[in-house]
């Protein structure tokens, strides 16, 4: 009985070990893959509120936004919305809307900015905007993929997991390139600081020599030495 019980424990332990990579992969997927985010933005009666997201190139972005007025007694509040790329290019712009959607594929890496403001004249109350922001695989229509390729169940989940792995790989490559750029900047900064230190020491030595030469000439002129 003791041996049999030991065999059962070993088998369970093996199953746990075999399942650990999949658990680790799932945790990585949650941590590294950009997904869907629902954001509530409180807009004042005057002024602009913006949200930003750092996104790498060639990533699909899909977002829906809806306005909810803080004062139900008034007419439906309308807002203006503007989405810009890291280089200031306008990707989406709407005025006097209460519901809207924008979708685009990123062309450069950096912070993408979505700004909202109330444009109703004489509006004294603020409003809230519900922004449903989906990035990457979260913006993909998996129902359409399943119908088109006639897959479902475990096969569909494996396809999603494969997409998450690809997204993790792309994120790691993006972070690696950023780290490389930062290392180059750091090395250039260190080199400039080193040259500045050498120049400072050289200037200090030259000034000291000139001071000694001047003092020596002064003392000789006064016949003190």
Q: What is this structure's SSE topology?
A:
Blueprint: H1 2-32, E1 37-43, E2 48-55, E3 60-69, E4 79-84, E5 90-97, E6 99-105, E7 110-118, E8 127-135, H2 142-149, H3 154-221
Antiparallel strand pairs: 1-8, 2-7, 3-6, 3-8, 4-5, 4-7
Helix pairs in contact: 1-3
GO molecular function: phosphatidylinositol N-acetylglucosaminyltransferase activity
Protein name: Transmembrane emp24 domain-containing protein p24delta3
Domain GOLD: 48-160
What report would you give on this structure?
Helix 1 packs across helix 3. The longest helix has 68 residues, at 154-221. Residues 1-33 have low confidence and may be disordered. By secondary structure, the chain is an alpha+beta fold. Strand 4 (79-84) and strand 5 (90-97) form a beta hairpin. It is elongated, with a radius of gyration of 31 Å. The protein folds into two domains: 40-136, Sandwich (Jelly Rolls), CATH 2.60.120; 153-224. The protein contains three helices and eight strands.
